[in-house]
Amino acid sequence: MKGIVKRFPGGVIANDKVNFDLKAGEIHGLLGENGAGKSTLMNVLYGFYQPEDGAIEVFGRRVHFRSPADAIKAGIGMVHQHLRLVSDMTVTENVILGLKSPKGFLLDLPPAEKRVRELGERYGLPIDPDVEIWQLSIGEKQRVEILKSLYREARILILDEPTSVLAPNQIKGFFEALQNLKQGGIAVVLITHKLDEVMDITDRVTVLRGGRNIATQPTNTVDQKKLAQLMIGEDIPPMTEKARTLTTETVLQVTHLRVYDDRGLESVKNLNLNVRKGEILGLAGVSGNGQRELVETIVGLRKPASGSVKLNGIEISGKSPREIIDLAVAYVPENRVEDGCVPDFGIDENLILKDFDESPVCNMVAGHIPTLLNEGEIQARARTAIADFGIKTTGPTAKARSLSGGNLQRLVLARELGGEPRLIVISQPTRGLDVLATEYVRSLIVQQRNRGAAVLLVDEDLAETVAISDRLAVIYKGEIVGILEPNRYSPEDIGLMMTGVKRMTQEA
Amino acid sequence: MLGIKFTRKLEVSRRANLTVTLISYVASPLVVLAVLAAAGKSPAIALDALYRGSIGTLSGFGESIVQATSLMLLAVGLVIAFRARVWNIGAEGQQVFGAISVTWFTLLVLKEPWPGYVVIPIALLLSFIGGGIFAAVPALMRSRLGINEVITTIMMNYLAIDALNWLVRGPFQDRSIPGSYPESPVFPNQFSLPIILRYTDVTIGIVIAVVSCVLVYYLLFRTPLGYSIRAVGLNPSAARTSGISVNHVVDSAMILSGALAGLGGGVYILGIAHALLPEQASGIGYTAVVVSLLGNVHPLGVIFASIFFGALISGMSSVERALQIPETLSLLSQGVIIVIILIIQVFARYEIRRA
Asked: Could you give the CA distance from residue B250 to residue B160 in angstroms, rounded to a whole number?
């Protein structure tokens, strides 16, 4: 792949003249932070995206893939992070899904079954072809996806963060299978952001940062420290002491917290964290290290397995989201459209989502029995929010669906910051926003901090986290592996901690 | 392919919705005529009979309103459930249970000299409560156990129908005449809903139904409960994140929906049947699903959709008599109308342009 350029609507350049080469029978690590352009580059190779510029040669032949079907024909297979299998069908049925049957209209399963079994044995990916997908573990499902590519005679196999769904003991077996594939002459691209994996299994490694190829080197010429540096870069602004009123009053106190994720894996392990009044605590980390589960537990959407979450000394773990909201906790979820708003509600209706049955939004009889919504109050609030937060819209009743990303985030912030919250939990506040909106959102967060709110900022954008946080906590595999103060900070440390190489034992 | 391009609109304007609804209303009678013409019947006679049977004569008009009354109550109940994205298919069973509740109470006080203005309100209240209780079962099964409400509400329909058939042959059967029909004793006259339009069977029931629609409108769009019902229906995830108890909303929506269906059953038995009959389970609960969709799942839209459908049912029975056609043929045209209306409504959501 030479000089690949891929732009997305909105001016984001995901790949900026990227060169990438792959040799037969090698395992090639593709390393980078979230948003570095790894998946985009591989989706270009897989025909899922068409590049604006650049050339792709596969086995010495210039190719133009219009769709993944073309790429598959050229011998390329890709296993996505989210597996795409039909759970009520057997392994064999899934493998041959979409292929023409040699018997025309009739399915010819026995020979296919035999080949699936053979392929599995040959590459150390044993699987029973007769079993239905829903009975399989996630690791086995991944095997099916790989077999699906092999069945189509893929010579190049792209694996998008394959180990993120595996438990540690499964990873070993998985790596053995990768070695077998390599022996079989298949070229494997391993997309990852885990340094130890790159060191363990790959022959060569390419590091992407900000959509550019920073380095391609044989793995035995680099070490984890070097890779972390390449991945994070040197261009992170220095973390500065911000003008703030120092307080020691702890607002949020998380102790020995353990939480399971949706798959029943322990994703937050014995986590300790304090957020003080009037500070922004930035939580840095590669996504999928327990951030989401931590945040959902704090706001009451998820029940912890054990441990405690205290707000100003009051235990809140196990309380309902409503009870926690009533304790002046604001939450700006990472997914604005799915969790942050009702797209088919107007701006006015979205603004009352949290207090629609409380005075003054709702009229009361005898002090506490809600009767009718107070239309005048709702409209007034919408007009105020539109003016104060600069929401660009046609009017208070315009649907949230019609707003741009930046304006939608302004709407969510208008609702969440309205009641002078004590604690603000905010996830990916500027993801997908343009420069102007980003600046605005950051200034709002700082403004809230200055007012005296405790802010927990969960952010994959490391530069942003460093720029506005007062302290930085690094999370890795569900644990806080280090707390960094402005005066004791180096970008290299963060990189090593985020990737699990280094840890500080200091308690939060 | 045809040189026409469909693009999904971001927002469907109120005007587009209204236009499309009006088109479907006007197109429906034409469809009926086309079906009959295809079956070799005279469209002219059919049109005349359809007109007289629906709105052209006082008796036709009265029958249209009678047919619309219970339908309206059932459909507006379903609007509440559908707005919460709770698929209540059990209006049939809920209205039967409402009617059973009324019968139970009426038989208790049959010999008492109580006046209608005491008995009727109590009976209607009981039908409302009965329907609500009957709907509470699938509601709790969905919200506490996660069992799909489509399946449970349909199964509950069979339960209600079987209970009905047993009651009219068992405990509730009129045994005053030997070898009598499977029916409860006929209710005394003073227990009938007052008629409000002379020379017709139109009772105060239609007023109850229209008022209910207006109240549901206020409930959905002006009260906190209605707000939370709509929020949960449109985005349960955001509702939960904002502290709304989705379980509570699902329960409330389903129970209210069943209560209104129960009231519909009560209005039917006190207004039209005057006794518990096996025909109480007429399939009206399924027609109500169509009516609530036809009314744009809007409580005020349901008023018009119910009257339209009532007129259609009444008009078609007059066509049956005039042309001597079997009931199945008229049911067939009703089915075709439903399909066509649903197709037309889809068009409202798209912008249609030349490519």
From this structure: 22
